[in-house]
């Protein structure tokens, strides 16, 4: 049996003005596209990253946080240019999701997109977690 290892490279991202920079070390194999009221309006395309793989490199003092609804999620953006760079999502507030539109050298058109029905959050979250558990079970 062969054990294949996915190559992990450090990915870099930033806001528009370059004040906020960040990096993460997880392979980007797909996109999560949410249609909730905020994600739809800002056009964010998400990739989940664990705390151990995510680092804010510069500009942390310039980050501004927006919260709404249950106030569980934290949506971070640059106070200078307004770019939404990353969030702590409601479904996993202890983790990060990075906005792939802010990441260097990613071909968004080449990545498969998974739709997340954030307008019906409770059902969509339940379905996403069930699908992720099924993928982990042999």
Automatic annotation (TrEMBL):
InterPro entries: CENP-V-like, CENP-V/GFA, Mss4-like_sf. It holds the Pfam family GFA. Residues 11-122 form the CENP-V/GFA domain. The keyword Thylakoid does not apply. Keywords: Metal-binding, Zinc. It comes from the Bacteria. This is CENP-V/GFA domain-containing protein. It comes from Stenotrophomonas humi. The lineage of its organism: Bacteria, Pseudomonadati, Pseudomonadota, Gammaproteobacteria, Lysobacterales.
């Amino acid at each position: 049996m062969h054990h294949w290892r996915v190559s992990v490279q450090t990915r870099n991202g930033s806001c528009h003005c370059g004040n906020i920079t960040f990096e993460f070390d997880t392979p980007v194999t797909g996109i999560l596209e949410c249609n909730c009221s905020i994600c739809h309006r800002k056009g964010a395309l998400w990739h989940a990253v664990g705390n151990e793989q995510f680092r804010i490199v510069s500009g942390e003092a310039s980050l501004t946080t927006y919260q709404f609804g249950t106030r569980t999620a934290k949506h971070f953006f640059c106070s200078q240019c307004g770019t939404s760079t990353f969030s702590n999502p409601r479904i996993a507030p202890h983790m990060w999701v990075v906005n792939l539109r802010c990441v260097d050298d990613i071909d968004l058109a080449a990545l498969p997109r998974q739709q997340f029905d954030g307008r019906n959050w409770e059902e969509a979250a339940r379905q996403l977690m069930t699908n992720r558990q099924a993928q982990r079970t042999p």
